[in-house]
Write a structure and sequence with these properties.
By secondary structure, the chain is mainly α. The protein has 27 helices and two strands.
Length: 676
């Protein structure tokens, strides 16, 4: 039985995509003379990710089935006193699982991109970016210390900026990437404060050493306050997760990021960047378990996101934005699971969600291609007969998303609902309502999308904006042609992603939730948080759980959502139109269309307020006080004094003699008068 892993082999996992990215980015672009061309760029990057996936799969096998472990520093970057800043890997079950998910989804996205971006001028640059993104995410999940975690954390933020703004000549794209960058910086500020507090009170960045001192952290208060130190640390760390995993109110960047090409939506918003926060909190479970206050905070934030972001998905007409709001809602579910100490359930949903959400995003991209880059679902309809592979794979992804029994999403989503129901935290009541209401809402908007796109009357020739290109319109197809199925290089990844979207939940349910899969990796204080123990009593296997699911409330809520959606959009389309008009009269629809005013607050209060404050500091502080009073004022005072002195210093001896005589006269007068 193997007990160790090779450092050199593990290094190849992140470095292979990095090598592909560097070669494609230099020799596949104008920067290096475009020496390798399109074929070379895509071959090198796909080969790099393929190598990473194969090694990750073997690593997963060694870790899960042979008990292999790895936790050591590979390189010491800097040492300040006793504080070591290192690059190292910590390979355990959660890391091995994340490595496989990230590399597999990334590989599918790379292959898909061959067809999707075929006629795009930035073809080679795009491959370089997505390969670099894969490297960044792998460095994040494989780290054994907070420094490397932060490096990967910021690197995925940087590359997401490049990818979201890929079409940099479009104002909407540059606005979206700047928005994503700035909103994430807000979260990252909290994250780095949390890391700083950990370093200040433990003197280390290494996970193992931090966890060993968690008891000491739990017993301390923040100096000068009565606040628990561990609570402050955990909330600061979670603020970082709120940015990366797009939780309210730091969620505003994710829907706008749909301005990037569709493969990016699948890569960033399904499997990688947005799950970084969920992974980090799960990794830090020994700390979060010490603070019920922090867990309640997480629970409330997750509940708000799951419920209210899902509602916004109902009114979206852009096919990608519907799925984007679905991602927000599902991330809320994962966050709720973290809040009730069901970390393994959260990671389980992270894994299942990665597959079916990547499938849905890539399926949406296939529809966009087949519809000649129309993204408005109101002008689709009847696409099923033209795109059978896309239709069936999209349906499977949708069924997984809404939590249909026997599909992967059912097992993870239902486990979250049960865990919330079992929680005793004060915020659990609101969370329970949010997850149950979210089931109906998710089913409604998911099948609204499905019915409007694949069924009903064909409306693709009625689009009033047919001659205006959509977000991803870079192919220049005509808009009078009928829909067509995408090539195999696009549908192939859809079929491969559909398989885990259906079966992975049943396979992983018992080992991940109740087996030894996360033993020694995720810590839960069973004496205070008994949700997982109660879950173990209710779930006895994937078949009994699925069969019981047909009788449980979530299934009937999901079914109700599907039925209502079918009635509204297939049988009685005038009903949703009437509801919309009624909602407009009482300004509810306007509130939803304005995304609850969050974007307005950011743009008009924070952004403009920051600019006004900056202008005040610039005009008054810099120009007025520093330049005007201190710098310019000082030389003007010196100049005035100098002009007076210059008047006195004439250079004539008789002037100086006269001044001396007058001075003696004044002194004599003074002394005479003083002696009287």
């Amino acid at each position: 039985m193997s007990q160790t892993l090779s450092a050199s082999t593990l290094l190849a996992v992140p470095l292979a995509p990095l090598a592909g990215s560097v070669l494609a980015g230099i020799f596949g672009t104008a920067f290096g003379g475009n020496r390798i061309g399109r074929v070379g760029s895509r071959t090198l990057t796909i080969l790099g990710v393929l190598i990473a996936f194969i090694i990750s799969a073997f690593t997963f096998q060694s870790v899960v089935f042979e008990g292999a472990t790895f936790n050591q520093a590979l390189y010491t970057w800097m040492q300040v006193g006793t504080l070591k800043m290192e690059i190292g890997f910590m390979i355990d079950s959660i890391t091995a699982m994340m490595m496989c998910v990230v590399t597999f989804v990334s590989l599918m996205v790379h292959i898909y991109t061959i067809g999707y971006m075929e006629e795009d001028d930035g073809y080679n640059r795009f491959f370089s970016y997505i390969s670099l993104f894969t490297f960044s995410m792998l460095m994040l999940v494989m780290s054994n210390n907070l420094l490397q975690l932060f490096f990967g954390w910021e690197a995925v933020g940087l590359v997401s900026y490049l990818l979201i703004g890929f079409y940099y000549k479009k104002d909407t794209a540059t606005f979206a990437n700047m928005k994503a960058f700035l909103v994430n910086r807000v979260g990252d500020f909290g994250f780095i404060l949390g890391i700083g507090l950990i370093v200040a009170y433990t003197g280390t960045l290494n996970y193992t050493e931090i966890f060993a001192k968690s008891g000491e952290l739990g017993a301390q208060t923040l100096p000068g306050t009565t606040w628990s130190l561990i609570t402050v640390i955990c909330i600061c760390l979670f603020i970082g997760a709120m940015g990366k995993s797009a939780q309210f109110p730091l969620h505003a960047w994710l829907p706008d990021s749909m301005e990037g090409p569709t493969p990016i939506s699948a890569l960033i918003h399904a499997a990688t960047m947005v799950t970084a926060g969920i992974f980090m909190v799960s990794r830090m479970s020994p700390l979060f378990e010490l603070s019920d206050t922090a867990l309640n905070f997480i629970l409330v934030i997750g509940s708000i996101t799951a419920l209210f972001m899902g509602i916004l998905g109902i009114i979206q007409n852009d096919i990608k934005r519907v799925i984007a709001y679905s991602t927000l809602s599902q991330l809320g579910y994962m966050t709720i699971a973290l809040g009730v100490s069901a970390y393994s359930v959260s990671v389980f949903h992270l894994m299942t969600h990665a597959f079916f959400k990547a499938l849905l995003f890539l399926g949406a991209g296939s529809v966009i291609m087949g519809m000649h880059h129309n993204q408005d679902i109101r002008w689709m309809g009847g696409v099923r007969k033209y795109m059978p592979i896309t239709w069936i794979t999209f349906l499977l992804g949708n069924l997984a998303l809404i939590g249909t029994p026997f599909f992967s999403g059912f097992y993870s989503k239902d486990a979250i609902i049960e865990a919330v129901h079992a929680s005793t935290l004060p915020a659990a009541g609101f969370a329970n309502f949010a997850v149950l209401a979210g089931v109906f809402i998710t089913a409604f908007y998911s099948f609204r999308l499905y019915f409007l796109v694949f069924h009903g009357k064909e409306r693709y020739d009625q689009n009033p904006d047919a001659h205006h290109h959509g977000h991803d319109d870079h192919h220049g197809h005509g808009h009078d042609a009928k829909p067509h199925e995408s090539p195999l290089v696009v549908t192939g990844p859809l079929m491969l992603l559909a398989i885990p979207s259906v079966v992975i939940g049943a396979i992983a349910l018992m080992p991940m939730l109740f087996g030894d899969f996360f033993k020694g990796v995720i810590y839960v204080d069973g004496s205070k948080h008994g949700a997982m123990a109660e879950l173990a009593e209710k779930i006895h296997g994937w078949i009994p759980m699925a069969l019981h699911g047909f009788t449980a409330a979530p299934f009937w809520l999901a079914l109700a959502g599907v039925v209502v959606s079918y009635v509204f959009y297939m049988l009685k389309p005038e009903w949703p139109a009437a509801i919309k008009r009624a909602m407009q009269k009482i300004y509810v629809y306007q509130a939803l269309e304005g995304k609850y005013g969050v974007d307005w607050v950011y743009e008009n209060i924070f952004a403009r307020g920051s600019r006004v404050l900056g202008s005040v500091f610039w005009k008054v502080g810099d120009q007025g006080l520093i330049d005007g009073l201190v710098v310019n004022g000082s030389w003007k005072v010196v100049g005035r004094i100098a002009s007076v002195v210059r008047w006195l210093q004439t250079g004539y001896v008789y002037h100086y003699a006269l001044v001396m005589i007058l001075g003696i006269f004044l002194l004599m007068t003074y002394f005479v008068l003083l002696n009287k």
